[in-house]
Amino acid sequence: MMDGNKLNELRELVEFLKANEIAEFDMEQDDLKVRIKFAGEPAVAAPAGGFDMAHLSRLMASAPAAAVPAVAAAASAPVPAAEVEEKLHEVKSPIVGTFYESPSPGAPAFVKVGDQVEVGQVLCIVEAMKLMNEIESDVAGEVVKRIAASGQPVEYGQPLFAIKAR
Prior knowledge:
The protein is of the alpha+beta class. Among the domains are: 4-37, no CATH class; 89-165, CATH 2.40.50.100. The chain is built from 4 helices and 10 strands, in the order H-E-E-H-H-H-E-E-E-E-E-E-E-E. It has helices spanning 4-19, 53-61, 72-76, 78-86; strands spanning 24-29, 32-37, 89-92, 97-100, 116-117, 122-128, 131-136, 141-146, 153-154, 159-165. The two termini are 34 Å apart.
């Protein structure tokens, strides 16, 4: 159960995300995992794993305060999503760099959602200091989600793909 302060922060977060037209947002802090996804919104995503409550508080301090309808459903909705995601294997970036889904601009992606992959199969490239590092799958299974966007900077340990292992 969330305390009143956390629930108020979550309400403010939802309004902040709506006001800034952010369509998808993930956050993990201690034992709390929140995933917010607005249907029908533009595909602008917040940085994955890059926020904590203190950072959000600073960001939201500049957002206008508004009356917020109850978001108890939003607070409870992420729980089933978190349970489903726990069963997926995340392929994480081993280095800091820039994520690319294809070997060159205009070329088809190494893999797409729904593809079956094998251990050692190249999933993407992470460029670091002009070196192209091929990132390989460490499990066999189906690509369920591409988490990073092509051309996006990625951090060490940041999830790139979610794979349903077989």
